Fold each of these.
Amino acid sequence: MILILFSAIFIIPVLIGAGKIMDLFWGSLSPGIAAKALAGILGISIVWTLLSFFIPLNIYVEIGTLSLGFLFFFRNKLYLELYHFSGKDIFLMITISFIIILAGTFSPYILDHFGYYVPTIQWLTEYGLIKGISNLDFTLGQMSVWHIFQAGFSNFSDPFLRINTILLSIYTIYIMERKAWIHLCFLPVLLLFSQSPSPDLPVIALSLIILNEIIAGNRNTTLLFAFSIFIFAIKPTMIWLPLLTFLRTVFIFKSDFKKLLFGIFILLLFFAKNIWTFGYPVFPVALGDLGVSWKPNPEILKTSSQYAVQKTYDMQYSYEEIQRFSTFDYIRNWFFLDGIKSIINILFMVSLITFSAFAWIKKRKLVTLICISLLIKSILVLAFSAQYRFFIDVFFVIFLIFFYDYFDKRKSVTVFSTLSILFIFILSFPNFIQEHLPSFRPGNFIAGFEKKQFYRPSTYEYHQYNTYEVGNLKFNVSKNYPFNFDTPLPAISTSFIFDDGKAGIFPQLSDKNDIRKGFIWKKMISKEKIEAEDVINTIKNTDK
């Protein structure tokens, strides 16, 4: 807890200072220091994304950013805004922050933390954005903007990768400043994402803040649209928010097109990043083929697409079985999956239908636009891969709209307190959820509470790997473990080695003397096939 607290005290003033710089160009999203911190996140993320095309996000980048942020924070005496809070609000803020930091000290348990988040951050801090890195390890082609933001602070400000915990603290300040008490109801659920740099937490928290500003009548179209695109860039399944801000700009405010230019710039940067790392504008969709030489092999894209279809049905059916489904089977089997996923899917459809009826009855322009945006997003998700983690944000949005005027401070604090106790209990005593909700698979990886958490957050260490070579690529593979969260780079997950071998290809360095020149895939010649087969057989024998 102590080390996360130090990270928060260190990073938040830097974000506020950076946000002050953003204010000079684009104005403020809302009054208060939280809005400045959020603007700082936006500005730093954009600058670091641009830098990562050319240099790694190492300690020199971090020191430069920290120095500039601190300079503006103290020169403009932004710390004085902390004195605007009442004594009761400060007490409540400290209490909530204590719970947030406590939750953030638990061990990471989301599997993507080990297979995607940490490896991505390793690549960014050591090399920056690598051209065609999806050819090495397909998942790394995502390179979320949120991980770019985390990577820049991971050298010494936040070495335990708890940037989500810090964001929740900023979210708390926003709630207190804007008296948006209903948002306290969302914080306990978000505590479950605070142990990892999961993109799910920032897109949910930031989208709720932007939606709150829209409901409150905020007319800063430039920043609202820019933030909406930024959230989309973190996770494209949030497409409903830029749709909403765009529709609101056109049909309600009828604003000048120039108001959208900042957001369009962020969108183009997002496309450029994806083309650089993946070969197509939006990961993992193979649309918008520009013919770049480093795009993934068609067989690997096909395998990814098939896997997405299987994930729609929680891996409870093979791809061949799903292909034989009738239209009725597609719908019925999705609704009646084994375990908790079935309940979530049914609630999702019931919520959408209920909200659509609500929008029809109310006939309020803003509510109608929100409904249209959510329906478009839902159709796209259902068509691509209808996994609950792609539409969980819809529940938060509908809850906010339905109960916006109902939850005052007292009710919200009561809900926050009750749910926080529940979720901290689950994190501390995971056996409870493992026994009573076995279909919630992430629950099986929750480690429980350890005394050392009072000083530092819990982390995992493995450091077991083997080194292999195929063609001009020398690489590392985690030993007897599917992920490479602390394996030296370049590292490849075993599943992608098997996929490459099956497709008759293997990743190779574009320039054998410079890893920053990126990766391509190459059809294996006889010698390379023998090398790859030896690697695959060794891995299989080791895993036994």
Amino acid sequence: MERRCKRLVCILLSFLVIAGVFTFSGAKTEPWSAYQKFIPNETPVVKRHLRGVWISTVANLDWPSVETRKIENPSERIRKTKEELVEIFDKAVEMNLNAVFLQVSPEGDAFYKSDIVPWSRYLTGTFGKDPGFDPLEFAIEEAHKRNLELHAWFNPYRVSTNTSAATISSLKIEKSVYKEHPDWIRTAMNRFVVDPGIPEARQWVIDRVMEVVKKYDVDGVHFDDYFYYEQYVGELKDQDTYNKYNKGQFSNIGDFRRNNTYLLVKELSQKIRATKPWVKFGISPSGVWGNKSDGHSDGSNTSASLTNYDKSFADTKKWVQEELIDYIAPQVYFTFANSRAPYGEIASWWSDVCRGKNVHLYIGQAFYKINDDSDQYFKGENAVPELTRQLKFNAVKPEIMGTVLFRFANFKDSGKQQAVNAVKNDLWLQKALIPPMPWKDGNAPDAPILGRLESLSNGVEISWTDNDPDTAYFAIYRFNAGEKMDITSDSSAYKLIATVRKNGNGVQKFVDYGVLDADSVYYVVTALDRLHNESEGLAISTNQSEYFPDVGMKYSWAVDAIDMLYEKGVVKGDESGMFNPGVNTKRADFTIMIVKALALKADFEDNFADVRKDAYYYDAVGVARALGIVKGDGKNFNPDANITREDMMVIVVNALKATGAKIDEADEQFLENYGDANSISGYARKSVAVLTKAGVVNGYDGKIHPKSLATRAEIAVVVSKLLTNIEYL
């Protein structure tokens, strides 16, 4: 009997394996396995990624501290408040962040000079009390000094965080919406809020935001997730509002509410874009728009209790689809293993929504939960690996353009230092530029010019010039001498050593303290506007012209030739002292260079019909014509036309013959190396062959480019070779 049972078990197991009930694979299935292609083993490096942090002012969570707020001496309180913010920004730079989201209106109040709402109580402890300085103005100045974007974060509807008698008393002041518009005030979640369904209240929110947009140099306007915020649907008690303002448009109060938040976002978006089109408008809703399990066929495979559509009455997906906002930063405050709202599912859902839209997707990250949450993957030895997976996912998933960490004070928590170090020393070790928004403006500023290097005792000073009013800051890349220049790929982030805010027009400077030998490196400096469109690069090295500041590394192949010709008096700069190496050369100007370089002289009486006697090139062209160096069409010379490479070569050979120089004749076999030899004009073929054989002229890219216009740098190289390689009688 025992043997028979064993046989039956074996047969059953075999059947189950064949049927696929049991899968025996070597790989362990983890909650993130489905997303493994976006979670590489190596830390991904990306050149473009917004890296931000929320700075909460409500209840003095991040800034200023409660201790500082309580300082009675005004000057000491101001000093300490400023000092704390500088420390925050310095820490952001240390962690290679590039944006901060500063809460400037947490309770219908202001961290700025407002004509609409009172000063925040979190500055001094009292609503309406002047703190003695403008915190937002100071914050913008210090953030921009460190080249951090600053987004002004508003809570649009909240008026207080509690409904105590003391709070009620404190709100009965000038400019308080609680006092001036008591009919707008509702209660939800034990908080006073403004009813979003009242049109005048919506306009009050818009006016508050636009006051900041107009008066302050903010980079963005930011809303959090508090729209309709209730313990249970209907707690706000806005049925009367629905009855008054619906006017038969919507059959239920839910759609009415969603339209109210839609109108706020749409109207504010239009105002911002009309006033300052470069200012970004973004919103950070809770992570889940809607659950499929709640009947939303286009929702996510989640079962979240708090959703945008059904609980906050905010159709955040619609805002993206209609491109009303410039970015959305859903708060995906969950792990990959969360059973009700998995990180991978939510982030992927938002990626699908934002794909192809003029809306950036940033992911809000629950940094505050590390070692402070019931989810085992946010705790202990699992915490840093989970954070690592999430940040890698954000960097690799194509639609995700950035990450925002909640919140700053958590960077100082003792239980989160391993996570802080993982971000600083690994995940965000390299700097990153913020992705541009071409739908707002896709035009890059002009590239910097006139680069210089100077060795100091403790580093290398780089200087350059920029006069483009659209330039906001510069990116500085450092390469080893001889290393290929790359400033466009993701791997170029390895070379990005700094971003520097523009300091007025004219000369800009940066000291690289990481290098002592200037000859061992070269730098590339690019200009970026405030929307992070990047110009072409200016390469700067020690291989610069001694005489012309615009002849630098880009023309390193011509530096020695240009300097030699300057020393011989053959070339000179323009009225600004520039050589203009990339400028095409006129036929008359090239003739002057040849006559000067070879010291040609001849008596002449006649000249070409189109060469005026008062022209600066009259004598040089006359000499060249008399010696048979230039022939034109017999009557006209066309002096102001740009010279082609083949005409340049014909004139050079004719000039050499006129001097009696020893010239090795060359047949056309020397042209066979050029892929475009057939495009050389018949009258020029022998001259091209002669100069090719002599090594005076070389092609590039396997071609001679005979019809291309010759630049001043190219001509300088040809003339210098002429003077050093040709033997004279």
Amino acid sequence: MMKVKLKFVWLSLIFINLLLLGMWGCEKDMNQSGSSMKVYHISLKDLDIGEQMLVKSLQGLFNRKIEEGNKELPMIYTFIRTSDYKWYEDYKDNYPLSSELKTIVSLIYDADAYADGYVLWDTARPWTLTIAFTYAAQFNALILTPQLADQLHINKKLLMDFTQDKWYYPTIDSGQVQNISGKAEGYAWALEHLLPGCDMTRLVYLRDDIPDLKDFIIFKKLFAINLDPLNNTDEINLLKQILSKYPPEIQVLGWADASYATQPGQDNVTVEKALVTLLSENNDFLLPADFANNLSFHGLFQPPTKLEQEEQSGIYEKGKKYACFIVSDGDNLQYDFNHMRTVLWEHSKRGKYPLGWTLAPTLVHYAPFIAWYYYNSAAESGFNDTFITGPSGYAYVHPSSLDEANLLAFIDLTAEAMKNMDMSCMVTIDSRGKESTTYQKFAENSDIKGVFMVEPDHAYYPPGRSHVFSTDTHDMGYIVEAVRASKQTANDLTNEIKIAAQKYPFVMVYVHAWDNNFDAVFETIKNLQSSGEFEVVGPYQFMDCLIQYKKQ
């Protein structure tokens, strides 16, 4: 049994603020049936890295047992940022919850019933943490630093000590030992011993010190990595070797680690492109999710109702000019979980004007309740907000870099995910030079109505079930002018749109979510509507009107 020295109890009470949050009702909406469930809430805000990782390992273990049908154990939900509190409030509005205080001491005693031991990781070598989580996922272990293990006087079995230069398999007393001299050898050890026991449909690429997704690694028994995709040849080759062990079309959850931009002129975008390019060339897909907290919790529930949106039909009026505003960075779960909710979606004027919003089409799979929240609140505000699929479909990839078979597979995955989210249009940032042939295949092999293509220097718009048409050369097909809203004032943005519409009457306005320029965007829409020249419409109406314009 785990024991805690009395003199350290007060430290435990300080380093985790843990609330037991009541009994879950509405069991019919849960993935499993049975008696009502308990939920522990834990704030990670004031914890050090070792304490955070212990909590995230506990969260993964507890929630996995819940998914497996253990109705006696509590689910765990962790607070990291303000959006976590907001999602909890939504749950509380839809499921009856009560609350009472609980301590880390009690939580550790609860874990004793099914945690088979613990592993140690080295804060001086943070890369050992990622491997430790992969190990703990397969061996039902808690994650501890040596200092925390000593402080809590844990009396469970030490399964593996990653602070040493000798690593054992399967456990520290198994007799099989390997000398480990650094990060590359550590991951090679994990590749040999741990990867065969992992879920083979996805893996995690995550910076070592980020707590988000750590619970999900244990929850789904995922292989986790943090390797340089840009400058370190040995690590690039090791990353390719790991990917080669997986079938094609896997999801890689996480995000590129910006710290690998070590050469002059490199930045976080350089690392991002290097990782996405490497994955695309291996026919794998990145799902940006590095700050998507509580995936092991959100995935336990179904939304209260079916996801549906109202796509209004557009009727082209001769002589009218049309503008469509698309708010985008929704290729990633962390945007859907955090920035969109707290900064954009709760804007006082949201819902009063037509806007298209990109969402990750896999959101309903990973966090169905969050997807339901967006659709439900859009319906309540009159469906001025509509949703389209974020870059570049099923996940972040360069579709034109995929080989033929895997491109068709990607199209199928995208179409199915869009169907589940009731979407018919998408935005993509693919710009590898083969867009026309690539998106022709989207048109030929799916019911996707249209693709908005957006890059800082150009934009593409493929209509209906036809080709992709370039809007920067204006030499093919349907013509759409593109304006990228950034930090302009409303007057400047209005004038730019009017100038763009002088040659062609259709203007797509791309609003990058991270620019936080919403006040100017809403004022611009108001200016256009009051001018009498423009119809500001959602992406589906825009598409309909564009097709009718071309056919006249």
